[in-house]
Amino acid sequence: MNLPDYEVSIDWAGDGTFPRVGRGRVFDRGTALTAQYGRERGRAFDPLAGGRGQFELDNRSRDYTPENPLSPLAGRLLPGRELRVRATYGGVTYGLLRGYVDDFELQPGPDQRSVQVTALDGLARLQRVRLSTPLYSGVRTGAAIGLLLDAAGWPADRRDLDVGASTLPWWWADGVDAFAALQQILDSEGPGCRASVDINGTFVFRDRHHRLMRSASRTVQATWRSGGVEPCYSAPMSYNPGWRDVVNDVTYSVPVRVASGQMESVWQMAGQRALADGETVALAARSGEPFFGAVAPVEGVDYTPASGTVRTSLSRTSGQSTTVYVTAVGGPAVIDGMAVRAYPVATQTEVEVHAEDAASISDVGRQSWPSERAPSLAGLPDAIAIADIILAGRARRQPVLSVTFRGGVPQRLVQQLARDLSDRVRVVDSGTGLDADCWVERIEHAVSRGDHVTTFMVERIPTAAGNPFRFDTTGAGFNQGMFGDTGRDDPDTMFIFDHPTQSRFDVGLFAN
User: Fold this and answer.
1) What's the pLDDT at 334?
2) What is the mean pLDDT of the chain?
3) Which of 93, 119, 217, 377 could be a cystine partner for 188, CB 3.0 to 4.6 Å?
4) What are the DSSP calls for 233-257, one per residue?
5) Strands 159-161, 203-206: parallel, antiparallel or unpaired by DSSP?
């Protein structure tokens, strides 16, 4: 069987080098190496899911035993070390997983002598990072993700971020994990956007329009068939018609926040606090609303010295929390109360966004978009556009297929290795009668010594608007032509300002 050259490399030294683990160590035990990434259930509107993987290493040499002082890896067998899993085929190197060692479990028995390694990609590791940031105003989603990555310590040279379609009137994070904060930004960008980690460990953000703009999503990259002309997929193949995932009712509230024009107290400490001479205490000041322009507490205004003298400072001047540092100077001190003043950004009102598809409701009953996926950070125009996009993609069922390829045939192996999230593929299946273009939403690999199995979760692409607006075409003008038909845009004909042909009237058509 003609399989690729597989490589598992772990940077145990933490110095940016990736010594290769021997092939026999990885596959001699017969346990498959696995890697998976993409959306949770393989649907375009599903939440983000971090990448994961696992493999087993032969440890008869005890090289991977932390208590073995003679191991060449002694002192370096630590979780969090970066790893990569790659495959080279036809002179091209492809990435299966780029991430970090999450854990390794020794199997020390005489008939085992192995170690089970689990790995997470950078997205999954964000779940363990707690964020607390300043407050920012008027940022696009791509910029907000950049700020989030700054706070999480993600390297600046490992980012590939779209600008983003949504503008967030206000963005901050306070006491939440970075993964949850990222999902909130993605929900406010809208369905169709995605985040992932590429072969080089680069964080990739694609906005909600990327499938209308990028060639890999606009043009068919391959045709997959149940039989006949290669590449042909194998059993098992599953088909979900998509009835349970229909959404024909979108209702959510969008908070409208307004900055106060006056400085107010956003936090207060009750009671007294005693400090020894030279002692510094850190007071956690958390507000019910975000704020900006905070000032260090002033004596006689924000606190009263019962005795002694103190000096105050703040860890930052905006966000939803800050730390007040209080230092006793020139002797012990006692302070009575403490407050922080700033300009609060309070929720002035909430606007309800509602859209529904009456025909779909009549067909299958009312099925609503989950309230926890509301674009709570978006401005009202973007929130309305997102509701239209949800209906355009979900008011009619969209089948999801689980398509399995087994290695050994060159045409299949190339598909297993080269396809990426958001790639457009045509699926022709004789069993279901389906012949449709789909987008790749999830990829799962299982590699053993003699086989490579890849499962793709793909979803049928919704049809584009049938009659977009045209200024001078009979039957497509006002009251006849539609502005993108609530989000169902045709990437081949929509108006794009900087496109060589689609930026011209009579060629590019209005889209949402």
Assistant:
1) 97
2) 91
3) 377
4) -EEEEEEE--GGG---EEEEEEEEE
5) parallel
Q: Counting Cβ atoms within 10 Å, is residue 211 exposed (0-12), middle (13-18) or buried (19+)? A: buried
pLDDT tens per residue across span 285-331: 999 999 999 999 999 999 999 999 999 999 999 999 999 999 999 99
Instruction: With a cut of 60, say whether residue 511 has pLDDT above it.
Output: no
Query: What's the pLDDT score for residue 108?
Result: 87
Assign 3-state DSSP to the chain and report helix, strand, coil percentages, each to 5: 15, 45, 40
Token duo for residue 439: 């987008």
Q: How far is CA 339 from CA 6, 401, 457, in A?
A: 60, 58, 54
Measured CA to CA, the distance from residue 277 to residue 310 in angstroms comes to: 10
Q: Which residues contact 105 (CB under 8 A, 6 or more apart)?
A: 115, 116
Averaged pLDDT for residues 413-427? 97
**392 — phi, psi (to 5°)?**
-60, -35
Tokens at residue 161, please? 């971020």
Q: How far apart are CA 327 and CA 329, in angstroms?
A: 6
| Contact (CB, 8 A) for 443 and 37 | yes
* Closest listed residue to residue 358, CA positions, set 248, 466, 486: 248
